[in-house]
Structures are given as structure tokens and as C-alpha cells.
Amino acid sequence: MLGIGKLLIATLSITTVTCYHTSAQEVTGELGSPSATTTIDSNYLPNQPTRFGGEIGLDAKSSKPYWPPQIVPKKGAPNILLIMTDDAGYGVSGTFGGVIPTPALDRVAKAGLRYTQFHSTALCSPTRASLITGRNHHSVGFGVISEQATGYPGYDSVIGVNNATIGEILKQNGYATSWFGKNHNTPAFQYSTAGPFDQWPTGMGFEYFYGFMGGDTNQWQPYLFQNTKQVFPWVGKPGYNLITDEADNAIDYIKQLNAVASEKPFFVYYVPGATHAPHHPTQEWIDKFKGKFDMGWNELREQIFANQKRLGVIPANTQLTDWPDSLPKWETLDAESKKLFAHQAEVFAAYVAYSDHEIGRVIQAVDDLGKLDNTLIIYIEGDNGTSAEGSVLGTPNELITIEGMQMPVAEQMKYYDQWGSDQTYPHMSVAWSWAFDTPFKWTKQVASHFGGTRQGMAMSWPARIKDAGGIRTQFHHVIDIVPTVLEATGIAAPVMVNGVAQKPIEGVSMAYSWDSAQAPSARKTQYFEMFGNRGIYSDGWYACTTPPAAPWLMGTTSMPDVVDGYKWELYNLNEDYSQNFDLAQKMPDKLHEMQELFLMEAAKYDVFPLDNSILERLLVARPSATAGRNEFSYSGVVSGIPTSNAPSIVNRSYTITAEINIPEGIGEGMLVTTGGRFGGYGFYLLKGKPVFLYNFVDMVRFRWEDADVLTPGKHTLVFDFKSDGRGFGKGGTGILYVDGKEVDNQKIPNTIPALMPWDETFDVGVDTRTGVEERDYQVPFAFNGEIEKLTVNLQP
């Protein structure tokens, strides 16, 4: 019997050897010991299990244990701190000539290099998708933001398993990976607790996520997630601000990691929401900039331009591009407008400086642990040019201008003392945005011109980059960051990840530039496209379309044929850094050559079909829990459903029916709501009386209310709304019924045209975010009765 057992054990051992193999490249320690480590060949991830190298007998005494070696990066591989801010053009930071101090960015630049020809895609989530994958934004489904996704490979907002992120690659090679701040790379139709979660940060290789999912969020009361769970750290904490909270969380993570596994390198992806609207700095920072922008946007532009020449971050022969006729010059404004606009810029500048300060705390935490020398820091100021989404006048509520509307200066002045507080969701005039993109033309959203795509970027790694304080002029793009990180860490771009063949990395490493300011650009060609505006770079030449409509009009104007209706421009960037001298008329053959090159690049990277619609794409049907449904039923308390997975009442007729049971005494609380302080609706009981409140982007509130208090017991409440017809923001007639009796009837002239607030949620029986009418109630305003059934019926 014993002989049979030994034979069986031997057979099992042979089977084990033939089924598994090791792909170890560098081993430390004795193989099989608990402390043994190995690097791997990262071409095929995950690494195949190593064979068992011990001995197995009938009992432990006659056996020898063997531990698989822990996977680690190559010796000396650096920590990676990848930082990117939001909506900040080339002329924002003091590091690149701006008037706003950015000492954290200065610190990175002085310890390393500044890059003066580094580019984004012109829009936030497309840039971010390129940044974490090393591939062009259309190649990974992010031709536009997810909220405008359409059913084409370049535009579906699904990064996909064949585009493994740098987080996934580094994680499987032994790095601790984390993500703090803005996401906006998960399909908007997958934000709910129903998942799937493979396109969330934790499903894309980031072991820890602390941040918000969409394009922006209220920094005072953020729509915040820790991994895949919504959290509310701001509740009960006066003075809370997400910018500080993100830094605290990142610092704590880095310290905890060091305490537990000090030798394990980290990859921290740190991307705060600043300086995307809402501009929400603390009052302390706002006070620092009082009076700093009284000179106005035209003089600001001149100051930035002079600073840029002095710092050497633009060539000496650079020309300052013309001020556009579509924007007013400062001297033409009245005193009240100047006061308002100057304060808008003060709050924006405070937000820039505040965010940079908190970033500096994260960098200092790395230094305090003695890890700064071997940390590659990449600090990108902005994911696109400064935003034009505040319109010509600016706004105390971004939702107003995103919907294609404006608020007059006199009305905005009512918010002057609250600008930047939790009572506003503010954005500044596009004239400031144009100035902060100095010396270039245009702004965020415009991919054809560098005002939309040129970003200040600094990179340091003291152990490797020795030309401290140097300037690099090579032409590069955000897709070049992943291959740079891979070269720095000694990790090969994988050909297969989790059983799926990978698309090739489309970026090129920038590491060659570390040792040579004169080295020619490794990037020879790069296309640009956003909303039909196009650009193509080729070895110093640049051709692009002329934007047919300003981005601050938010797609409310008619657009030309996207293929043949655009004018083209041509620039020699070797002689014309700022795109000031259009050579299209002088060199038609060169222009034609560049246009043909764009078509080839566009075909290669899934840019087609071109589409210059904006608002229309917000309303396109997408896969979600709501797709194809017109009736939704709920009972009890349900909260935290993102608007993309909730019944949408925008631009349609609808009926909301609440079958409720009121307790003894007075009924009180929220029945159903979407939105909050800055727009949305709520159906609730206030001191026993049914109320339906429609908050039209915080500009006017329409109210339906019963004059009578409901008695205890069962009741059926109905709000029925009949739209005036098809189209954006049509008005309509709302009728409130109680137990079959009409109690209030009102016609309203307008409804929200395109979007409910993206950082609010759909809640039944409670209000978890901000209230739609804070004079009536304070959140959470839980209903004190029972919701037996709540139904939302939508007209097609």
C-alpha cells in the first residue's frame, strides 16, 4: 500500500511539472522561500504559475514546502506619480508664464524638465483615456465624452479589454496601483451599483480608487466613490473640500503602503477635479487673489506673453495671436461687468493655486518618506485648454451654460459674494479662458488649434534625469506617457493581457529627450479631432480646419457639412510656434498633402464617421438599465441611482404616481427626486401637503402644491406633465392630483433642455445629495411614511 502511495505522489509531481512553467527573469532570494521574488516577461499577462519546486510526501515530515516567488519590477524601477489637472491651458500656470503661482509644478520643473510642445486631445475624458492606455482616444472608444457616446468603435466610450491600461500592466508586474480624483473613463451608463465594474478604475488595474466618476462634481458635497461604493465624507464636516480630501487620502495611502511594504513601488494616478467647473476653492485662497485681475483679460494676455518669453517657454520669435472679434475687449465693458468678471478670474486663480498647493503636499509626502529621488513625477497642467463652457458672460451655475443658455450680468451679481461657495457651481467668462491659453488661439473643445490642445508639462526623476531645470521642445502627445513609463520601469508593452490580444501601444517613449535637448522629435505624426474640428501634425508642419462655430455656443448654431464644409489652414511650426501665419493660400499643394495624411491617420485610428453635433449627441440612446423602458416602479427607499440609469423626464411628457401610506400625525419627506440645488425636480410632502417642485437650473422654481394637509392612511398622488412638443427645453402643462382629484394646474414656459445635474442622483423616499428647494427642507429629508409603489411613466 505504501509503495502505491509513493507512486501516486510521484505521478502527481510529474503532472505538476508538465502543466506549469516559470517565466522568471530575475530572481532574488532562495526560490521556494517566503522572501523570494522574481521579475517576469510581461509580454503575456498574467504571468503563468510557476511549477512547484518542493517535495510532497505522505505527511509534512517527509515533504518540503515551496512558495511561488512574489512578482516584482526590475531592481531600481521607480515609483510613478502621474498628475494631471483639469481645464487648464498653456498660459495658466506660473511655471509656463502665467500669473498664478504654481510652486508644486515649479518644483517638478526645477528638479527635471519642462516640455513646451506637449499636447492633449482638447477634451477631458478623451485625453484621460489616451493617458492611461497609450493609445489615441478614438482607438479606445473615446472620440468624445461618454455622455455623448454613439454606437461606433471610435465613440462608444468603452476602453475595452484589448486596451489594457498602464494600471493593469504595472499591477501585474508588481506595482501597487491607485487612482485619486476624476475618472470620466467609465461609460456613463455603467455608473450604478449594478455594474458591470470591469470599466471602473478597480476593473482597469487600479487596486484602489477614491474619486468621482463623471466630468466634474461639487467639491463641497461631491458625488464620491471609494472603489465601487458611494461615500459621504463631507457629511457633518464644516469646511470640507474634496481637493484637500483627495490629497489627504493619497498621502495616507502612500504612507500606509510604505509602512506595510516599503520596498514595493507605487503607481499613483493623481487627477483632482480642479480646475474644471465648478470653481470651488476655499475662501482663504480666494482672498489671496483679491484685485489681481482688475487689469482685465487683454492686459493679462500681454503679461503672460512677456513672462513666457522671459522664461524661454516659447521661442523668441513667437507672435501673440490676434484677439477674436467675437469677444469684447476689456476697455469696452461697464464697471459692473468688470467687477463681476474680475471676481470670476480671482476664484478661478484661487482654484488653480489651491489645487497646486494640495498636489505639493502629495509630492512632499513622497519626499518625507525618502522616496523622491527614485520617483518619476509627471505633472501635466490641464487635460485640455482652458474651458469655454462658461459662455461669454460666465455663470454662477455651469448647468445653465452647458444647456446653451446665459444669465445676464445683473442677475449674476446677486451671487457675487457667494461665488465659489457651495451656493454656486461657477464658471468664468470665455474671454478669460482665451487669455489663459496665451499665446494661442481658441480653447477647450477645439482640437484644431493649440489653445485647445497645448499643455504645460514637467517631468522629474532625480535618479535618472540630470538636466535639472531644462526645457524640451520636442513635439509630443498624451499617448506618449504610457510608453515613457514602461521604458522607465523596464516593462515591455504586453501583447496579451488576461487572455486577450492587445492593440499596439500607439505612443512613443519620451525618455530619449531626458539626455538631449537637441534630439529630434520621436513623434513624427499626430492627428487631432474633436466634434469635427481636425488637425494633423507631420514633422514640423501642421494643417487644421477653422472652427465653424465657437465652442461656447455649445452646439446651438447650425453647422456646415462636416466633410466638405470646413475651411483649412496650414502652418510651419518650426517658424510659427503659435499658429499665427496661415500658409494655406500660398502652399495649396502642401495643404493637400497634409489633408490626405489626415484621412489616412483617421482611417487607421477609428476617427470615422465624423460628427459635429453636440447637444444632439447628449440625447442619443445608449445601453443601460433604462434602455427601451418607459415604465419604472420602485417601493420603499432607493437612493444613489445615477441619472444615466434613472428614468429621464427631459424633453418629454411623463406621469409620476406615488401610492403612499401616511403615519399618524403629519406626513413629511421626499417621495422622489432627481437633481438638487442647481436644477432638477422633487415630489414630496411638506408639513403634510403634497408638493411638486421643478427647479429650472436655479434660475426659477415652478411649484405645484395642494392647499390641504393629507390625513393619515393610504393616498395616491399623481403629477402629470404634458410637454408642448418635440425639441430642446419645451415648456408644458403640469397637473397635480391627490386621490384622483386635480389640486393644482400650471403651465410653464421652459424645461431643462438636455441634462439633469450629472453629480446628483435619482432617489426614492430620501434625498441624499443637495435639495431642490432648500427653503422647504434639508437633506436627507427621509419620508416618514411608507412608499408602497412609486411609478414613473414616460411618453416616447
TrEMBL record:
Gene Ontology molecular function, alphabetical: hydrolase activity; metal ion binding
Q: Which Pfam families match?
A: Sulfatase
Look up keyword Lipid biosynthesis and say if it applies. no
Per UniProt, which keywords does this protein have?
A: Calcium, Hydrolase, Metal-binding
Decide whether keyword Calcium is in the record. yes
What the entry lists under PROSITE patterns is as follows: SULFATASE_1
Protein name stated in the entry: Arylsulfatase
The record lists the lineage as: Bacteria, Pseudomonadati, Pseudomonadota, Alphaproteobacteria, Hyphomicrobiales
